[in-house]
Amino acid sequence: MSVPHTSPPPTDTHCPYCALQCGMALCPAADGADGRPVLEVAERPGFPVNEGALCGKGRTAAELLAPGARLTRPLVRRAASGELEPAGWDEALDLVAGALARTRRTHGPDAVGVFGGGGLTNEKAYALGKFARVVLGTSQIDYNGRFCMSSAAAAGTRAFGVDRGLPFPLADVARTDCAVLVGSNLAETMPPALRRLSELRENGGTLIVVDPRRTRTAEQADLHLAPRPGTDLALALGLLHLVVAEDALDSGYIEARTTGWPEARSAAMAHWPELVERVTGVPVPELRRAAALFAGARHAMVLTARGTEQHAKGTDTVGAWINLCLATGRPGRPYSGFGTLTGQGNGQGGREHGQKADQLPGGRRLDDPAARAHVARVWDVDPASLPGPGRSAYELLDELGRGVRTLLLAGSNPVVSAPRAAHVEQRLRSLDFLAVCDVVLSESAHLADVVLPVAQWAEETGTTTNLEGRVLLRRKAVDPPPGVRTDLQVLAGLAERLGGRRGFPTDPEEVFDELRRASAGGPADYSGIGYRRIAEEDGVFWPCPERPAADTPHPGTPRLFRERFATPDGRARFVPVTHRPAAEEPDARHPLLLTTGRVLSQYQSGAQTRRVGALNAAAPGPFVELHPRLARELGVRDGDALAVVSRRGRAVAPARVTRAIRPDTVFMPFHWGGEGRANSVTNPALDPDSRMPEFKVCAVRVERAERDSAGGGAPGTAEAGTPGTGRSEGPAGTAGTNGATAHAR
Length: 745
Ligand SMILES: Nc1nc2c(c(=O)[nH]1)N[C@H]1C(S)=C(S)[C@@H](COP(=O)(O)OP(=O)(O)OC[C@H]3O[C@@H](n4cnc5c(=O)[nH]c(N)nc54)[C@H](O)[C@@H]3O)O[C@H]1N2
Ligand SMILES: Nc1nc2c(c(=O)[nH]1)N[C@H]1C(S)=C(S)[C@@H](COP(=O)(O)OP(=O)(O)OC[C@H]3O[C@@H](n4cnc5c(=O)[nH]c(N)nc54)[C@H](O)[C@@H]3O)O[C@H]1N2
Ligand code: SF4
Ligand SMILES: [Mo]
Known about the structure:
This protein is of the alpha/beta class. The protein has four domains: 11-69, N-terminal domain of TfIIb (Single Sheet), CATH 2.20.25; 75-147 and 347-463 and 485-500, Rossmann fold (3-Layer(aba) Sandwich); 151-340, 3-Layer(aba) Sandwich (Dimethylsulfoxide Reductase, domain 2), CATH 3.40.228; 592-713, Barwin-like endoglucanases. It has 23 helices and 30 strands. The strands form eight sheets. Strands 5-4-18-17-16-6-7 form a seven-stranded mixed β-sheet, covered by helices on one side. Strands 24-26-25-30-23-27 form a six-stranded mixed β-sheet. Strands 10-9-8-12-13 form a five-stranded parallel β-sheet. Helix 4 packs across helix 13 (314-327). The longest helix is centred in the N-terminal third of the chain and has 19 residues, at 89-107. Residues 709-745 have low confidence and may be disordered. Molybdenum atom binds next to loops.
């Protein structure tokens, strides 16, 4: 009897990229050159968040699993050549451990730093934080979520006592009567979520979009407000002023569920409509219409994203939007409230389990004695041995080569994505030793002394927590190529060399079980969530405490704040905030504003998506969006090379003339290095509470320029370096395309 040939079943898993964490299935489609199956991405219609829909990034995600597209061997910089050359794992790990130990010994534990990422799974983020505190004993750990979520996190914690991006499932958006989407270009940054906005409008609801640009998202709106970048704080306060003036408050709610209204009210009352029009450029009738639509809706919500948050006053700005929601009685009510759209794949979980400078697992504070005692017990160390809070991401990068002399970087590419990037690049070069764990040879990995090639999403199991606070299981579908290790194996290997393998298991489920215990009793309590349960339930919303004595497990918490807020008195806190200008306002030399953001087909620093052919073809390089009126004044035509110049540096890219932007503002996407690197220009001014840099506004001038031969797609540096050289030889050159990585393998 012949056995019918059956292909192995597809593996249900999740996309490696954004915080929507779309469900997808991976099917073995053919045998690969290295003996591993080639995987194809297929729909997984049963997963509720995206119901089968995927954007182009998700659909092409499996391309990066091919050995030709990524690193497959450790690289060590050889003194003789100055180049990164292939090496064995033992040698590479010995070198990294040796450098960490040497720096620690010579300069003290705080001279070693760790920089993580919001794309790392919960297990990795947890292990990285533990490794820094327990093995290295350093306070100097932070991560790229500081560039992403920190202002919303700080404001949410201040007002509600907890930091969960959406306090309700995304599907609730379709059921509200009025949604205000502030500084989010969802149509390009989370395309499958757009259907919730369409459903909202089909159900008769109103969509208001606040964005200085008429984006694809703004085109869906019933009302589009286009404020001058950096003035959302005035805008939100102006709307609250109108709500008070029109007597559209929910006094019963304010009385029963909040504190601090009188102070917040008087702060808002200073922002009368005519003043707000002058500051923001949004006409008074539009302000009135927005306030009336929002206050008059039975159910209403405000959703913020990076446009309103990535400012040196981002925390107060988010606070002002929250005040508007509280004054109209929204949070905790059905299909209503305040939420923020978290960005990275594990942007939510990655900010809960201890890779943040001031944090212990479970969303606990590092300076809280009870939290230290609890986590120290789980880690089997003396609470007094745990270091205190360290520097925030930009401050840590700025300190490299000075107080911090050896860095372990995993899950971020700051040479492209950090503000004032040329300076950050120079700080990275000035380190005694840089170790980078990455999947590809990113611009930052190019500067390393040792590069450790790690496994990616589909090659290892792990959990992520999506933008709704839903903890998900990303299942392994294929073995990593030989020569590649997981981040957990790297940390275990380093821990062993530094005197204690104990406490660094390499099995993700074992790590997760420890994370559950460490998080128990904290704001982000995962203790009742196990791998098996996540798989059975399509995800579990935290908090989900373990209930050993109860008959049934805790159901998880899809909706927060129905009864009480997570503050000591159970009430939400109004915070009085007032408008202030951007850290850098235009002047005679820099008369325009630059704002930055994303395009559909590239992801973040582009380290991954620039290596995928179809995505690169769709979005081959940077550009400068400007209004026809400004283009006329400058004598610029579409496609002309423009230099965007700030006090920190310049970026060169072709002009894209469009009526979709304000005439006083230009826009650049930040996905590329080289001469088109937007972050050569951006301002590292930090929010005093969240330490978020001001990515979304700085003063610039725009002039005609000759473009380098490098072109937009080639990710070298603004100063244009020699391709392929390392840190000792001056600026890093190209590292972007598959070809550029070839010499290193
Ligand atoms: N295609 C793609 N998708 C992504 C990502 C990606 O890199 N590429 N990254 C993921 C991550 S980590 C994140 S954080 C999210 C980000 O998702 P979004 O926040 O949607 O993305 P951005 O393009 O950074 O910013 C959104 C909008 O803010 C506007 N904006 C600029 N300045 C201001 C301002 O002062 N006020 C207001 N109200 N708006 C302003 C910009 O014009 C832009 O359209 O996307 C996630 N999804
Ligand atoms: N001007 C400007 N700058 C910005 C922003 C903006 O709006 N404007 N947005 C900011 C925001 S919101 C963000 S989130 C940051 C993001 O910017 P980055 O922090 O640079 O994020 P990525 O490009 O996603 O970098 C992730 C790196 O980790 C690698 N990687 C992927 N998976 C793994 C893994 O499992 N393990 C390890 N070790 N490595 C892995 C990838 O290959 C990649 O090199 O950029 C910020 N920079
Ligand atoms: S929307 Fe985000 S999670 Fe969904 S497929 Fe696209 S990148 Fe992946
Ligand atoms: Mo982000």
